[in-house]
UniProtKB/TrEMBL annotation, chains A, B, C, D, E, F:
Reaction(s) catalysed by this chain's protein: tRNA(n+1) + phosphate = tRNA(n) + a ribonucleoside 5'-diphosphate
Chain positions recorded as phosphate binding sites: R85, G123, T124, R125
Record protein name field: Ribonuclease PH
GO annotation, biological process: rRNA 3'-end processing; rRNA catabolic process; tRNA processing
Classification via PROSITE patterns: RIBONUCLEASE_PH (PS01277)
Lineage of source species: Bacteria, Pseudomonadati, Pseudomonadota, Alphaproteobacteria, Rhodobacterales
HAMAP family to which the protein is assigned, alphabetical: RNase_PH
Role of this protein: Phosphorolytic 3'-5' exoribonuclease that plays an important role in tRNA 3'-end maturation. Removes nucleotide residues following the 3'-CCA terminus of tRNAs; can also add nucleotides to the ends of RNA molecules by using nucleoside diphosphates as substrates, but this may not be physiologically important. Probably plays a role in initiation of 16S rRNA degradation (leading to ribosome degradation) during starvation.
Alphabetical keyword list: Nucleotidyltransferase, RNA-binding, rRNA processing, Transferase, tRNA processing, tRNA-binding
An example Gene Ontology molecular-function term: tRNA binding
Length: 235, 235, 235, 235, 235, 235
């Protein structure tokens, strides 16, 4: 039995509210249950050094969490420095959102996706990827409306979900109560039926290939549901 | 004529939405026009070293801004370090919110007010003070309901407003368009008819005592309006 | 009764010794009683990026304190990093000294004012502004003697004074003994009869507009006395 | 055809030389072809705060690379700070080596595994895990010989291997030439037939579940070969 | 011929003004020609961890330079971090001043010597050692007058001098003009006829044992002259 | 009697193994008894700003130590920052290796010598200099073979040795057991019969000119022996 009473394959309620920031070229507030993330996309007409004069664009991401997004207040990262964990998360988000982007079609410009968690209840990096794609898509639509980009550089939605073994049972979309108990869990980033990233980890434990297959089944079904919400948000 | 069409003494629309964070002991989202700040109050049963074993509490504040809160994306502070400007702002917020707090009544515990700007259009530090007081008051109410604090350590609302000379004319509650033009402007923190902090500054310019008096008149009237909205939010 | 026996409006003895550094384009050692600050002005034929190719100059300031300038030894800032308080002070000094400077007349060059407190007894930022103006003026005189600047870019002296409520009474030029007791105090930066900056602050307290007026009266009289000493030093 | 001429499932020559450091409680130099990593295990009779007075031990890892371990010299990390990538790698090593450790049997002491790459040719984090387990095992043997640990807290060897799609074909134990071309690759950490960690990533690409299965087949076979070399080294 | 016209063995005019800081337990302003260093000694009734409960004291030193102490303004160290060169200098000063101190006689307390260069013309680290000893001696005298230290923990003065080959000729007490030309130079720290530290260095050059002997002859004579000035200052 | 049983003038066994790194232009592993240092030379076709367009080259060095090179594990420098001691050592290595280099013959390119201590038993900086010269020489030979450098920019080997007073007796090539006891010790860097650097230091002690002469006699003899090993390694 899951703490929330959800069935093993049930995601939390998904809500994606777009246009939440008047300055950003694309933005949304994604809510996966009590996990809330503000995602903004910033378009800049410059690219990092390794892309200069290539005619190609770039997508990068940054991630943060407000100090009281969590149950106990965390130290503000600006007061120390970005932790390695934060950097690992934002590299994952960036890699995931770059998958399937046609950088030639985008043109020599950079889109920066900022994902800031204002309330956390597990699965923040996955919500950031799912919402980040929506913000990016909205920014691309704006570029296309302005005639700056002619063919859509984005493909199917990029969606991410955490799944894991809770009380020995495979469950989808772990919330914090489950995540802090699960010895085995993973993040699955998908684009339609294809995989972009799989990160399975067992802290102080191990898992079998069969269990991994069960989690991937859950991830596939959940990602399809997320993709529908994403497409609806940008329609 | 103000860019927004407001009369010289007109504040922007004020909205204070409470209970926006399920973890924090007190929270609100304050909107002064297009300036939006999330304020959370965290209660911890410990105090800084200089207050230990004093029987007295403490109030402190931190301030941050999401990278795309502004028109051009700013560098994420966690990637470098808190700027001096940020530290100056958060010291101002902390001093302002400590004014009039009865630390003996609060007891030996600390309230940390986090003010995070999610969208900026001028006057963010003032909105942070005004909203921060609301979050602090809600946290105190929770402590009192729980019987942990017996008499209310807070007094009248602490409210803050920026006023300045725009096109030579004294105006209240500067927005970004005005603030970036104003050679003379100031922040006024008030508690009822009393002053807590006055910061008048003239970049590359000067001002007279008469002009200062006019700005204080505007600040007094505006602070009273803010105090009414604060009291309504915590009622 | 003030600890020093001074009358409420009496400043401490003022001494401004010029030419204390053989390398700097302008320099002085200002003494306000036991507060001693070395001020040097450095002229460089380059400006910050935002002024490049503008034909205009710039003035900036930095502030430091020797570890044993104070009664208890402080940690050397070079061993950690400039504190937010230090940065706040040096931004105040820079803003104050820029007031009324004709940057076109100065030409595309930068003057950096370094203010280093070698002994502290309250009011160091004010002494730094008052002495910093003298160092800047001497550097400008040198530029004019060399024919590099043709018309004087500086106007009246910029003078600064701290005033506050000590034992309920408004007093001028607070020393450390008074400053550490005063719940309400402020820094007033003036240029003749005009104001450049007012920073009134009440730690754990409040003040009225009437009290503020009394402090400004003291500040006006004191600033005039400082201006006379400054003009004498650069004559 | 692989650049090295290896068959798809062929690992590079494996060499594990133990006892390379006279100070460390356990040490080895592992060579996977031209990738060479010095691994040392340090035993300290103290544990991190979250394990104090628990009666349980802890295992942690750190990772570094000499500046000229790579083809182009890299900036020395001590001159800036550990990059996020380095931190991500050392967290992976730590998690992997903790899997299956009986912390009660280890007792309240910490083993720190330092993995320093002295020459790199791809797969350094995997070599670090494989060699790190050997160093840890040797340190544990020393503790047991000294009668400080009574029953062996370690289980089967922890072995790690990178596999990926090179020119569309699944191959095992990628070297640098392959790794820099492979759009899809992953790290597999195993303990016998069980999985500890799977990190599959597609930079600018995607992969199918079928491809993932093929890579896991290669990983399983390779890990078994590594485990034999590890057991031989500690025999 | 030396730029200053001095004979090879002539030191610059020495001046040691004591009691320049009202807060410090001992202080002086030492002038070696145009090199001016403020030295303060701070006594604290605590010692570093490695001396705790040993009944013994400790002496340590810190060194800094005001940004415009030099001909071109240097970056303020507090804005970046103490350079390695600064740390090397202050470790030298500390080692030198600890020589011959009887830490048992001093008792379990620490003396911190701060040496801040307010104007530089070569030889600042040597002036800091020479002046630092005076500040330390004055602080010790104060401790003895107060009955806190019963027998003098200090011996003969510690004096330091830089000597080098200028235009092929051995000269004493290099000033900046000489120092920037000298390919071979050294710092000699002496205590009476005994040596504490010798640092001879040849940038892009070499030297012979005979030349080294000549420089040591100069250093011996110069140190004796410095010691007389030090004893006179503390008399 | 020395702890190792060596005679006062006996060096530890010297071993210099070249070609230990397949990427570096020159490399060796130098062993002075139990002190082991990997030295690599990196040639880059660029020079620091102060050498640009001068037609001249540059040599610089960096130094590091693996955390468990020592008896007790040290904190990894990449986790904090390079200590002042480390910076002091690497400046010494760089100065030493630059002595006698003909930068015009080298041409406008930089050689960076990385010296990483993998096992320490005293005298690491001296071993780094001795081995660093070998790595540099090998890199220069490679440049000459390729016709990029026409006449050899290097002269005689640069060799370094620590000598000190152990139990009152002058001894050569101190190991850790001796070094931690010796109150007086020094590092001598030589090039044939010439001196490049002498650093004699007495922690809490003093020494005479006669003792210094005895140590220099030992250093001269030892350096000659090191030079023979260096020439053999690069033959």
């Amino acid at each position: 039995m899951r703490p929330s009473g959800r069935t093993p394959d049930a995601l939390r309620p998904i809500s994606i509210e777009t246009g939440v920031n008047r300055h950003a070229e694309g933005s949304c507030l994604i809510r996966m249950g009590d996990t809330h993330v503000i995602c903004t996309a910033t378009v800049e007409e410059r690219v990092p050094p390794f892309k200069r004069n290539s005619g190609q664009g770039w997508v990068t991401a940054e991630y943060g969490m407000l100090p009281r997004a969590t149950n106990s207040r965390m130290r503000r990262e600006a007061k120390s420095a970005q932790s390695g964990r934060t950097q690992e998360i934002q590299r994952l988000i960036g890699r995931s959102l770059r998958a399937g982007v046609d950088f030639v079609a985008l043109g020599e410009r950079q889109i920066t996706i900022d994902c800031d968690v204002i309330q956390a209840d597990g699965g923040t990096r996955c919500a950031a990827i799912t919402g980040g794609w929506v913000a990016m898509k909205l920014a691309v639509q704006k570029l296309m409306s302005a005639g700056l980009v002619l063919s859509d550089p984005l493909g199917e939605p990029v969606s991410a979900l955490s799944c894991g073994l809770y009380a020995g049972q495979p469950v989808a979309d772990l919330d914090y109560a489950e995540d802090s108990e699960a010895g085995v869990d993973g993040n699955f980033v998908m684009m339609g039926a294809k995989l972009i990233e799989v990160q399975m980890s067992a802290e102080g434990s191990t898992f079998t290939r069969e269990q991994m297959g069960q989690l991937m089944d859950l991830a596939e079904a959940g990602a399809a549901e997320l993709a529908r919400a994403q497409l609806q948000a940008v329609a």
